[in-house]
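Re: that chain you flagged

S.,

Sorry for the slow reply, it's been a week of failed gels. I finally had a moment to sit down with the sequence you sent. For the record, here it is as I used it:
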Amino acid sequence: MFTKLRSLLRKPPNGIQGSEIMNGNEIVAKNLRMLRKIRGLSQIELAKKTSLSNTYICEMESGQLNISIKVVERLAKALEVPLKMLFEEDLLALPLSAFERFPYSPEEKEKLRVEKEKAKEKLRRDFKKLKTALEAFELEVKG
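Prediction finished late last night. Pasting the structure tokens below so you have them in one place:
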């Protein structure tokens, strides 16, 4: 996953040279493209989730548009990330946990809490199975 993130970050938005200092729109453009790809969304799918045109999404990702804060809020919600994440200069500096879905409503928060609890329980069960298998292997090797 980190390799994919690094390769996405190395590619500046269209028309932007990698060595140039990026302005706010260019940072949002780069992060928008990367976060959309991390979420596995096409430009068309993101456009549907935000009620924007896919042409507009494409133009935003090029870094050439002045994007309003209202549009950035819609993008953050659709991508399930905190608003500030679209303005981060170096997304790779963030911990991996920063890329988890960000719940915007109480229902989403509860759903995410339940999903996390199920994942923890599955890990506990898998760990117990692994521990049992290792103990059986140790007995077999000793015996």
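What I noticed first: The two ends are 42 Å apart (CA to CA).

Talk soon,
D.
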